[in-house]
Amino acid sequence: MGLSKRGNGGSMPMTTSDGASSTAVDVVGVVLAGGIGSRLYPASREHRPKQFLSLFGDRSFLTRTVDRLRGITDTILILTRDTFVETVTDQVSDVTVITEPVRRDTGPAALYATHYVEKTYENDPVVLLTPSDHVVGAGFETAVRRMSAVAARTDRLVTLGITPTRPETGYGYIEPVETGNSVDNINENAASWQPIQSFHEKPETETAEQYIQAGHYWNAGIFAWRPTVFNDVAADSALAPLQAALQNKTSDSVADAFTAIDSQSVDRAIFEQSEATAVVPTDMMWDDIGTWDAFDRLAVQDGLAGEDIDTKAVPPQEEESHTTTREETVIVGDVETEVIDGKNNIIAGNGGHVSTIGVSDLIVVTWDDRTLVVDKDDAQSVRTLVSKLRERGLFWDSWTDWERIFVQSSTGWPRYFLTIVAVRSVRGLEVTPRMD
Fold this sequence. Notes:
Blueprint: E1 14-15, E2 21-22, E3 27-32, H1 61-69, E4 75-80, H2 85-91, E5 96-99, H3 106-120, E6 126-131, E7 135-136, H4 140-154, E8 157-162, E9 173-176, E10 181-186, E11 189-193, E12 196-200, H5 205-213, E13 217-225, H6 227-234, H7 240-248, H8 251-260, H9 266-269, E14 277-282, E15 286-287, H10 294-298, E16 324-326, E17 329-333, E18 336-340, E19 346-349, E20 353-357, E21 362-367, E22 370-375, H11 382-391, H12 398-401, E23 402-408, E24 415-423, E25 426-434
């Protein structure tokens, strides 16, 4: 594989995983790592988003995502926020990190990253946009190669469609046009794709069942396009002011445009504005791990793509620091447990000991100074809780929001404790004399 920056050489042929040679398709992997993943509260917080957590094994969601893209893409970019740059580079030190001025969902983020790729690399390479915090199955490499090829050869905006296995109400759905098409000579088979009829938001259970019967796919939030194709659509979309600011190349105008633009997904901002779209279907295992009840599914899941998730049943006396099953209870993270007369619970933590007596079908999470107890059926409602905590200023970490600095005068007296109070963007100063 090869990818040339502007002013450098050309491309090299790409070889697929099964050894079949294909036409050169340069692919830039873009990993979105600026979100929070708030439904995994309290493990995921404003200062410690989901993508940086290691909830099973030693690698974080972000590290796993980047590792999956190695060898599939020619280069990898991580798009995040300024406040997360240090954490990103600590976890993944050998990739390019770019930052967006303000978090405004995947639409503006996609435009920002696509603009960077267009200005940095030659030959209009495929942009492969992927979340940083999902778990995927063993068919990921084949699926990504196929969707990248469709994006390169058809002048279409492409997304990955996951064949549903249940009427999930936490995912969006993709409605395809029944007519199928293909791109030949990819992994010795045709890469099938369908035009997209429409995107559907997260449905109620009955509607989700209808979507499955109608042949709709789960929307995995994994996309591919060439910059020229994307920018043509963006010019006539709600993202046009941001696109103009990026083309003007002034940091102030870009920041202002980011601040002014509404948060919107790339599906709504770009894909729904174009008739030249495609969905590449796959039946690989995929889960966005959006809520704590997802770990029930992971604990019995086979065929994960390079994921070292321990799914065996272990006796009560053994302790594990992975995702494990224990007497029908799923243990996540590094936590000791004692379960009496209970089953089908999920217990998560980053230390300590959790005991339950006579309770079932609960999610119990203890992380640092926070504890969450919620019925499994209400796992999606954690988002509502987080909204309330944000309103009260309680979603932040108490240790990072308050900094205590001891200041001693040169004369030795008086001494002061200087407490800097940082709540969002508001700062106050309290000076208290200390007599000792």
